[in-house]
Write a structure and sequence with these properties.
The protein is globular. Helix content is 31%, strand content 24%. The chain is α+β, with helices and mostly antiparallel strands. The protein has 5 helices and 8 strands, in the order βαβαββαββββαα. It has one domain: Alpha-Beta Complex (Maf protein).
Length: 199
């Protein structure tokens, strides 16, 4: 079987970003759906890194292939870093991000600019069939804006404001976002580590 990497996600928006960034890795990167794998994984880690490793290991054990997984989320300092590792589950897994974003804006009503600091965090784990685990990490600093803005991106992007660009991370181009984003940074760091392994 040709070498490939399964990325443990069902999120198409995320897969699009991942494929763009890992395009020159030299091996195809497929989603769980494309690999014909489905699993309900209990992510009970206490950190992004633990959750990423739990996901990657679970799918590697099912498939015996190289598996990468990420766990990412939004930390808002004013809310004690919430929603944090519960970003996807905040207000329920099936709740639309329009509702989630509106609720977070509501929680920050009247909070001044300098207290609206936030970051996107991404931890990536890559597990090999022999159990080897590689990890990487990336963050993107910004603030929580005052309104939902922008059509690009997904999730919390429309309320995540990048002061140096004067717009939300849903208003920058996908290419620019991949360059700046937490996931972009973590994926590039992982790509470097994998590159070293091939040499």
């Amino acid at each position: 079987m040709e070498k490939r990497i399964i990325f443990a996600t069902g999120n198409e928006g995320k897969m699009k970003e991942i494929r763009m960034i890992l395009a020159d890795l030299g091996v195809p990167v497929v989603s769980m759906k494309e690999a014909g794998v489905s699993a309900d994984i209990v992510e009970d880690g206490k950190t992004f890194a633990e959750n990423a490793a739990i996901k990657a290991r679970a799918i590697m054990e099912l498939t015996g292939e190289i598996v990468m997984a990420d766990d990412s989320g939004l930390e808002i300092d004013y809310l004690d870093k919430a929603p944090g590792i519960y970003s996807a589950r905040f207000m329920g897994e099936d709740t639309s991000y329009t509702i989630k974003n509106t609720a977070l804006l509501e929680k920050l009503k009247g909070v001044p600019d300098e207290e609206r600091t936030a970051r996107f965090v991404c931890a990536i784990a890559c597990v090999f069939p022999d159990g080897t685990l590689l990890e990487s990490y990336g963050t993107m600093e910004g603030r929580i804006g005052y309104e939902i803005r922008g059509e690009n991106g997904f999730g919390y992007d429309p309320i995540f404001y990048l002061p140096e660009y004067g717009c939300s991370s849903a208003e920058i181009s996908p290419e620019k976002k991949n360059e700046l984003s937490h996931r972009g940074k973590a994926l590039r760091a992982m790509k470097e580590r994998l590159g070293n392994m091939r040499d």
